[in-house]
Amino acid sequence: PTRSVEKKLYRLRSQTIERSFADAKELHGFRYARRRGHQSVQEQAYLTAATQNIKKMALLLSKRA
Prior knowledge:
Strand content: under 5%
Structural class: mainly alpha
Order of helices and strands: HH
Largest sheet: none
Shape: flat
Oligomer: single chain
Number of strands: 0
């Protein structure tokens, strides 16, 4: 791809990543840890990521149907 196309793709990627973190923070309680300790907070992060992935898959599947 040309340089300008790469820049546009990188900007879109940045917006997508930032949106994902914003959704985690606003919609999935990622602003504060609900539990204490590294292991517990890591579990919360994994569950949040899994929830976001499931929602994304459901949205894509509903658009296909």
